[in-house]
Amino acid sequence: MKRSRPALWLGAFTGFYRPGVEEIRALDPVSKFLYAGRSVILVISAQAAIAAGLLAAADRRFDPIDFALVLAGFVAAHLLSNLSNDYFGYVRGHDTPDSPRMRYTVHPLASGVIEPRALVTGVAILAALGLGILAYFVLERGGLAVAFAAAGIALLLLYDAAPVPLKSIGLGERAARGLNAATVLLIYAVIAPLIAWGRLTPFAVLVAFALPRAARAVALMARPRQALAPPGFVGWPLWVHRACLEHNRLFGWLYILGLAAGAAWPEARA
Last residue of some domain: 169, 184, 212? Predict the structure, then answer.
């Protein structure tokens, strides 16, 4: 059954990475760009903006214009980072046919799904959008907005565009696994104190429903990497990453649900 364009656009943000080059080539330009930009991961940036908006609402400081611009800015910055990552990885010869990046999903340039000129045009549009949002917040918030944006732009450039990009400087697989596992555990460890101190309402305990996925992710990080993908697995060789993403998305939505309930009933705070 043929899907509508809005359904295709929404589908780019759900599930996991799609590896089918021919399938993506047949899509409309917007869908093609969304899949090429790995939009499935952009959900976590949208969740961060929504959480910020709900925290502001709980303090009765919510501004709809500020919220809309923060949401658009976070998602645009993340999409810009993904496309920049692919561009520099491709032109520098890092994204080779046997590299993980080329194997787990479609590479927009190497696959020919998007022409280099179209990708650069998309990046320019996203950059212009980001600069417009930045200008608004600089006028509204001053130096704090400048410092926040400068740190983000520096990290973006250092991660991808620097002569020795940060993404090429690894901690090693064992250290990275340990750090990721500690981060997963830490986000649960801070919830109870925040509730006790009145920074969050008891509704925040809804995140406990994500604990089974957290346990699965931590267990995978504690085991040696599999040599082969399980039958039907999408996104190989991103084995641990997929488990962490599935956990993070569920945790994020549950956290947002708790924040929304707390904003509606702020008297529930300790």
Answer: 169
Of 148, 169, 190, the residue at which a domain comes to its end is 169
Looking up tokens 């590299």, which residue turns up?
Answer: 99
Phi, psi (deg, nearest 5) at residue 231: -55, 130
Distance CA 88, CA 182 (A): 30
Q: What is the mean pLDDT of residues 210-235?
A: 88
Three-state secondary structure call for residue 42: coil
Question: Which residue, 210, 218, 239, is CA-closest to 227?
Answer: 239
**How are the residues of the chain apportioned to helix, strand and coil, as percentages rounded to the nearest 5?**
70, 0, 30
178 with 216, same domain: the answer is yes
121-158 per-residue burial string, b: 16 or more CB within 10 A, e: under 16: ebbeebeebbeebbeebeeeeeeebeeebeebeeebee
Range of the domain at 253: 171-270
Structure tokens at 92: 């520098």
Q: Are 71 and 50 in contact (CB under 8 A)?
A: yes
Considering the domain architecture, whether residues 114 and 237 belong to the same structural domain is answered as no
Residue 1: pLDDT over 70: no
Residue with the two structure tokens 């949401």:
71
94 and 184 together in one domain:
no
Q: Angle 236-241-242 (CA atoms, 0-180°, nearest 5)?
A: 65
Query: How much is the pTM?
Result: 0.88
Q: What are phi and psi of 233, to 5 degrees?
A: -70, 130
